[in-house]
From TrEMBL, chain A:
<protein>
    <submittedName>
        <fullName>Iron ABC transporter permease</fullName>
    </submittedName>
</protein>
<keyword id="KW-0812">Transmembrane</keyword>
<feature type="transmembrane region" description="Helical">
    <location>
        <begin position="240"/>
        <end position="268"/>
    </location>
</feature>
<dbReference type="Pfam" id="PF01032">
    <property type="entry name" value="FecCD"/>
</dbReference>
<dbReference type="GO" id="GO:0005886">
    <property type="term" value="C:plasma membrane"/>
</dbReference>
<feature type="transmembrane region" description="Helical">
    <location>
        <begin position="61"/>
        <end position="78"/>
    </location>
</feature>
<dbReference type="GO" id="GO:0022857">
    <property type="term" value="F:transmembrane transporter activity"/>
</dbReference>
<feature type="transmembrane region" description="Helical">
    <location>
        <begin position="308"/>
        <end position="327"/>
    </location>
</feature>
<feature type="transmembrane region" description="Helical">
    <location>
        <begin position="280"/>
        <end position="302"/>
    </location>
</feature>
<keyword id="KW-1003">Cell membrane</keyword>
<dbReference type="InterPro" id="IPR037294">
    <property type="entry name" value="ABC_BtuC-like"/>
</dbReference>
<feature type="transmembrane region" description="Helical">
    <location>
        <begin position="9"/>
        <end position="28"/>
    </location>
</feature>
<keyword id="KW-1133">Transmembrane helix</keyword>
<keyword id="KW-0472">Membrane</keyword>
<feature type="transmembrane region" description="Helical">
    <location>
        <begin position="117"/>
        <end position="137"/>
    </location>
</feature>
<dbReference type="InterPro" id="IPR000522">
    <property type="entry name" value="ABC_transptr_permease_BtuC"/>
</dbReference>
<comment type="similarity">
    <text>Belongs to the binding-protein-dependent transport system permease family. FecCD subfamily.</text>
</comment>
Length: 334, 282
């Protein structure tokens, strides 16, 4: 099924991603020699350089790959399934659920127990959102899915706003507002462990819908006549929704909301993959990973006293990219 | 109000010294993520021993000895920045840079949590915590002794007339309540804290301007040192406040004096005493 040019694209993107991954290990906030760090890790010595490279920069870079990839791939799958170019991983309301879970951890002060409580709270919020979403949609179709997602995300956004409103400590509300902007700073392997299971299971589920997505381009009736079960518990929609929700929820729980990656990356890559949804999934994963690796490098390179949040940076970079796509799209349709 | 909440949390969770133990030899690589620890380090440590201070240390709105921070290395509050300085000891705070502190602790660094001070009696304790951790106990006593003498002198000369009331009004309309450092300073300055005497001031989300004008205190203590512009701060500049509290009834006490429990906090008491004398003379 894989088109030769799309395979070439994937190989190229993967190469860029590996180079950027190496760069993320080599370049950080401090002038520590990454080479010494790597040598120390290989030799099993514990040194400051080894700790910084192995336990701070490596998990951070891995998270950038996983989270960026999940967002890109989920965006591509959702845009394909809903046949709506405006779909992004946020439409399901699961990232809002994860955000609410994390904000509750801030509010209740559970954060004092351990730093890991924050992503765990986010994960619980995301899982509750997934259950609500799947339960709400049931056997309904794409419209029901969109409505349920919109309802859930406005409900969770309202509850998050309520929590922010009720917080009495201005420092806590500052921290919450900051967290909601998304960041990968000071993430460790504990965060990778929290994020990885849901992401892997989710991505596998999404990947299993690839061929059905191709058939759906021709409409639901055609897809059904080709033997794909669309709705119901074992249908394409349930697998896709469950997969995207699990993956995006686990990622948002760890990093906070990172916008625009899932929206922009599939748009940029779609013309290069022959407009076939299944061929877009892998390049979108790699493209999302690349975008987040670059953004995280930029966050560490800028030193303006106040730390720039990665979600702000992706939105800043994503919006002009999106505008550019709109302009080129208009020109080509004229 | 805010301070009261923070205090409550500290009391409940009560983290003391997490690094523990007294260092026999002086530490020669000191890093801090805690603004209050920064200022005590200025007083105790050799400048060459400081490898990283919190970014706020050089901000004169928040730090009493900010000019000393000039030329000293400032450090981002992230795990990597802390580890890269290779410190012997890291001072942390229970509320900020929690992730960076956890990373430093996991990496095997000695971290010392400096709890938030709630009274003037905490000043010697805070200084001793830092001194023990960096092995400069001798220098600590040289700072604590004059502080104790000045405190005792201020306690002896406490005004007998306890009729005057005061209110500390902060950005967003927060007022200072009993159980906080600022409340104790207010009392020692010769005033009764009106925030605890009337129920209108007990609101959790700040006190509206109207309540301040309807229930007038003899002295309104305001901090105008904060940088930047916000709606929360704009409340303090409301012309209505200036009319209701003309010159001798308003006092400017910069937040840096009582943000942390430091020997310099007694300067705030001196300011309040002067305001007390002005009001009595009226």
């Amino acid at each position: 099924m894989t088109h030769p040019s799309s395979r070439g694209l994937s190989v190229m993107l993967a190469a860029v991603m590996v180079v950027l991954l190496g760069f993320a290990l080599w370049h950080g906030e401090s002038e520590i020699s990454a080479w010494h760090g790597l040598c120390d890790i290989m030799a099993g010595r514990s040194s400051v350089a080894a700790t910084i490279v192995g336990q701070l920069r490596l998990p951070r870079a891995l998270l950038a790959v996983v989270i960026g990839g999940v967002l890109g791939c989920s965006g591509a799958a959702l845009q394909g399934y809903l046949r709506n170019p405006l779909a992004d991983p946020g439409v399901l309301g699961v990232s809002s659920g994860a955000a609410l879970g994390a904000v509750c951890v801030f509010y209740t002060g559970l954060l004092r127990l351990s730093v890991v409580m924050l992503p765990l709270g986010g994960l619980i919020g995301a899982l509750i959102a997934v259950m609500l979403l799947v339960g709400l949609v049931g056997r309904g179709g794409a419209v029901v899915l969109l409505l349920a997602g919109a309802a859930l995300s406005s409900l969770f956004a309202a509850l998050t706003a309520l929590t922010l409103n009720l917080v009495q400590n201005p420092y806590a509300s500052f921290e919450i507002a900051h967290w909601l902007m998304g960041s990968l700073t000071d993430r460790t392997f504990q965060h990778v462990l929290i994020c990885l299971p849901g992401s892997v299971v989710g991505l596998v589920l999404v990947a299993s819908t690839g061929r059905a997505l191709d058939a759906l381009v021709l409409g639901e009736d055609v897809a059904r006549s080709m033997g794909f079960i669309l709705h119901g518990w074992r249908g394409v929609q349930t697998r896709l929704v469950l997969g995207v929700a699990l993956a995006v929820g686990s990622c948002t729980a760890v990093s906070g909301a990172i916008g625009f990656v899932g929206l922009v990356i599939p748009h940029l890559l779609r013309p290069l993959t022959g407009y076939q949804p299944s061929r877009l999934l892998v390049p979108s994963f790699l493209g999302g990973a690349i975008m987040l690796l670059v953004a995280d490098d930029a966050v560490r390179a800028f030193n303006w006293g106040v730390e720039l949040q990665i979600g702000v940076l992706t939105a800043l970079a994503g919006a002009p990219l999106f505008l550019y796509r709109v302009v080129t799209l208009r020109r080509s349709t004229l | 109000m805010v301070k009261a909440i923070v205090l409550g949390a500290v009391l409940l969770l009560g983290p003391g010294l997490s690094g523990g133990g007294s260092a026999l030899a002086a530490s020669h690589r000191i890093a801090s993520l805690n603004l209050c620890a920064d200022q005590i380090i200025f007083m105790l440590a050799d400048r060459s021993d400081i490898v990283g201070l919190s970014p706020l240390a050089a901000d004169c709105a928040n730090t009493v000895l900010c000019e000393l921070a000039r030329g000293l290395p400032s450090m981002r509050p992230t795990g990597e920045a802390v580890l890269a300085r290779q410190p012997d000891v890291v001072f942390s705070s229970p509320f900020t840079a929690v992730a960076a502190t956890a990373i430093a602790r996991q990496a095997g660094l000695k971290t010392v949590d400096l709890p938030i001070a709630e009274s003037l009696a905490d000043v010697p304790e805070q200084i001793r915590i830092v001194a023990r951790a960096i092995g400069r106990e001798d220098r600590a006593e040289a700072i604590i002794a004059p502080f104790r003498a000045r405190l005792a002198q201020l306690q002896r000369t406490m005004p007998a007339d306890r009729r005057l009331t005061a209110l500390v009004y902060e950005a967003h309309g927060f007022v200072v309540h009993k159980g906080s450092l600022a409340d104790e300073v207010l009392t020692l300055g010769g005033f009764r804290n009106m925030a605890d005497e009337q129920s209108v001031f007990r609101g959790a989300n700040g006190v509206p301007l109207e309540a301040l004008i309807a229930n007038r205190a003899d002295l309104l203590v305001i901090d105008r040192s904060a940088k930047g512009y916000s709606l929360a701060q704009a409340m303090l500049e409301n012309p209505v406040l200036r009319q209701a509290y003309p010159a001798p009834h308003q006092l400017d006490v910069p937040a840096r004096l009582w943000l942390c429990a430091l020997p310099q906090t007694l300067d705030a008491v001196t300011r309040l005493r002067a305001a007390h004398a002005r009001l009595e003379a009226q």
